[in-house]
Amino acid sequence: MHATAPTSTLYLSAPVMAELIGRKGVGQCIASIAACIHEDFLRWPQFEKSARTANHSSEGVIELMPISDATTYTFKYVNGHPRNTRLGLPTVMAFGVLADVATGMPQLLSELTYTTALRTAAMSAVAARALARPDSRVMAIVGNGAQSEFQALAFQHLLGITTLRLFDIDPAATAKLVANLEGTGLQWMACTSVAEAVRGADIVTTLTADKARATIVTPAMVEPGMHLNAVGGDCPGKTELHADLLRQASVFVEYAPQTRVEGDIQQLPADFGVTELWQVLAGHQPGRTHAAQVTVFDSVGFALEDFSALRYMRDAAIELGLGERIALIPALADPKNLFGALHQPAATASQRVTGPGAVA
Amino acid sequence: MHATAPTSTLYLSAPVMAELIGRKGVGQCIASIAACIHEDFLRWPQFEKSARTANHSSEGVIELMPISDATTYTFKYVNGHPRNTRLGLPTVMAFGVLADVATGMPQLLSELTYTTALRTAAMSAVAARALARPDSRVMAIVGNGAQSEFQALAFQHLLGITTLRLFDIDPAATAKLVANLEGTGLQWMACTSVAEAVRGADIVTTLTADKARATIVTPAMVEPGMHLNAVGGDCPGKTELHADLLRQASVFVEYAPQTRVEGDIQQLPADFGVTELWQVLAGHQPGRTHAAQVTVFDSVGFALEDFSALRYMRDAAIELGLGERIALIPALADPKNLFGALHQPAATASQRVTGPGAVA
């Protein structure tokens, strides 16, 4: 081996990630990823950004989300298939890679199904800290599926939410959410309609999964001073908010070129005024300016949030000694001689070493 | 486990791929992948295609190449860093995934560093079968790096090339190529310039790696009836052929929207006439029309070729019982209850089963 750069990749499987999250705690993971997201959003101009690529089918969508700064590249693979649960599969599944910009070497391959749930909740909390009323204590959660517990904990830990008003068209989903929140100290009320859940809430979080132009929240439901955290509308043809609601509110987005295609604002003209959240975090643009203002975070999920989550998970895995090293890339005795490596079985076999290890 | 769909992913590491290729043979792998490419190119209109996304830095580029048909989605991660060999790393490293369009489940995660070399050579041979003179026996190879042996074997096995004229600015590269070709039956001649290598060749294959606007082959070197297999110019700012040579030849490409950005034709106006190769393979457009015609395959590498290679490697691995199953996606007792899985360590630990297995 003449190699001076490592050719192995740290691998975090879904079970290993579950162990990592269990040891750190869900609340701590969300808070730490929120800190990474906030930090990275302040460096927004340093990133090479693009709207994600999406391959659509009648059943769902598969997306790739790349982003890089001067030293680190990441991408996420993520699907959205609302009917997957009938097959025993999650609606959203994901994994991703963190790589070295200087060489292209993939340094980390990680599950991102659990991690996407954490980072989506963290992103919502980062936005709400800038946009919701500081005295917000009551949050409605419309759609009580796989993302709902993570949002509840994020808003409890990072916003001070104490009470949840819950609605789902499937009462079993709400029952699952309530069971999972036992012991968190959160108060909750199960509601029988969206309108009832939204009534009196300081923050309204929408997490519906149908790939359809839905109108979950209408202008009549909205009260002065509300912050809407609209997470479910994230795909062409998949919306949650009535267009008039958007017109009457102040709308904030992650990355405008992507949100105009995928977010609730896809219903509005391309010149509809929105503010990119990083501008608010950096102090370039105002967030909420008065207590009666209605704010909307039209969240679709942007690659930078996965960049932040991947670097947190890499550091946490190294700290805890979790993960194994895999040979995704060949270790070549002579990197100019790829063909020769195919005829040196001993040399390639020496690469089969796995076990806990650090990203160099 | 209530899951009815498998949540494990077949994983082919670089050493396992080296074993697979060793057992099948390089020539057989290239021939089989060429057959898959030809078959898939005939189904061209059935694919959802896009130009790859590229993140550029001063040292190189990292690209994502997604594509899908109605049932199968694939993507490849690939870098290009010409100075990597100084660090003991390959210039080009790659891996990829094959997934189920109906659910988004990643079914195969595979190394693609070796496989990219095989599929690039296979693609060149598929193009040359349609474009080179059938009596071609002599091929020049300009650039004798990591891709050169694969091209030599592909053209020997699939085109009937018997003699190579070799040139590289680094004589050690040529010596490596010649050593690796021992026992193949190929005749070779080491040349001291590009012009000498090209002289008298039926086919000219250019495989240079510099990320620069180079002019490796000029119009004066080109003889009537030649086929140019231009593989190295595959990135904005990275070219190999003189623009006048392109203007005087018949130019064929993989996917025009991508090649106009990345290929040698980036030097020419956006309306420069080119023919997509699939049109020739399908009989919609002529390839070579007379013996004196100069043809150019301005190859940049398109996602469909990786789609073809991934499905071949999946089938070969299953046939040979190679690979192991990994838990990239969590196996959830209740797919609607992601949060609950984080509090069931026993359930997630049961997923740690690995070993040879088939893609379901």
Automatic annotation (TrEMBL), chains A, B:
Q: Which InterPro entries match?
A: NAD(P)-bd_dom_sf (IPR036291), ODC_Mu_crystall (IPR003462), ODC_N (IPR023401)
Q: Output the Pfam families linked to this UniProt entry.
A: OCD_Mu_crystall
Q: In its UniProt entry, what is this protein called?
A: Ornithine cyclodeaminase
Organism name: Acidovorax soli
